[in-house]
Amino acid sequence: MRLALLLAFLVIAVAVAARSGGYERAYRAAVRPQLAGGPETLVTEADLAPLPEPVRNYLRRAGAVGRPRVRNFRATFTGTFRNGLKAPWMDFRSEQYDFVDRPARMFLMRGSLRGVPARGLHLFQDGAASMRIQLASLFQVVDARGPEMDQGETVTWFNDLCLFAPAALIDPRIEWEPEGPAAARARVRLGRVAVGALLRFSPVGDLVDFVSEDRFLSADGKSFRRYPWSTPAGDYRDVAGRRVPGYGEAVWHTPEGPYCYGRFHLADIQYNCGPDSL
User: Fold this and answer.
1) Contact 239, 214 (CB under 8 A)
2) Where are the domains of the chain?
3) Which residues does residue 216 pair with via DSSP β-bridges, in sequence order?
4) Most exposed among 2, 108, 118, 246, judged by the fewest C-beta atoms under 10 Å?
């Protein structure tokens, strides 16, 4: 009897260990092939000419002009997250890579909910997206994929570029439309998916909000509801000559009112990363 219990315990322990490292391995396997180097070209004032004036001002203020175009970036965050309006907040730390030329986004989150470890993995590449969430290093509680995820992660990828790699906004895949002196509308197409957003800027030219109606809320990865989604940002700072927001929120605008589900504090960001960054 004791031997049987011991063997059962060992099987569970091995399964937990294997699953706990599974997300990390999948994350690294997705990132590694994307980290090849590329030509380094500088952003010039002439590159800004096709953009609406608020976007031109934003790129200048962000320090994009005279610096290399962004091929990719790696960012780490700390913050809090919740999976429902009345759900408890969970502390987390996340790491992500975003790639521009071959659009991709890999996001790995580690957290703890009332002492129970939680992990999340978002992968977006070749136009396809998936989201997996795991509790207690063993139980996968969300496994989402499909057209709603593909479209939603396209929005998230574009949102990341707008906030943290504005030099990447000089891109023929993005169509711009002026929206007054302090806003602009953008539409970006990646393959079969096209998404739009409204960008709002502060009086001094920082991007302070991004609003899109092309994303879907899902708590379980099975049912999806389309609501406006925004990412108000602030606490701007200079990082290696580039001006980026140090704090941001992720907010759903539901019929019952706004629902903030994520608060993000930038810990570190690196641009045009090579294989040694992983």
Assistant:
1) no
2) 2-34+52-277
3) 226
4) 2
Is the distance from CB of 228 to CB of 209 less than 8 angstroms? no
Q: Please name the residues in contact with 73: beta carbons below 8 A apart, sequence gap of 6 or more.
A: 97, 98, 164, 165, 269, 270, 271, 272, 273
CB 173 within 8 A of CB 158: no
Q: Measured between alpha carbons, how far is 166 from 170 in angstroms, rounded to an integer?
A: 8
pLDDT digit string, tens, across residues 152-210: 999 999 999 999 999 999 999 999 999 999 999 999 999 999 999 999 999 999 999 99
Tokens representing 243 are 């001006």
Q: Say whether 245 sits in a helix, a strand or coil.
A: strand
The residue written with tokens 């952003």 in the block is: 43
Strand partners, 201: 207
Contact 80, 92 (CB under 8 A): yes
pTM score, whole prediction: 0.90
Domain topology for 2-34+52-277: outer membrane lipoprotein receptor (LolB), chain A (2.50.20)
State the alpha helices, DSSP H only, in the chain: 2-31, 53-61, 147-164
CB atoms near residue 260 (< 10 Å)? 14
Cβ–Cβ < 8 Å for 144, 121: no
Q: How many other CB atoms sit within 10 Å of the CB of residue 175?
A: 13
Is 140:121 a contact under the CB 8 Å cutoff?
A: no
The terminus-to-terminus CA distance of the chain in angstroms comes to 46
Residue 268 phi, psi dihedral angles, 5° rounding: -165, 150
Find the farthest-apart pair of alpha carbons in the chain and give their distance in angstroms, rounded.
Answer: 77
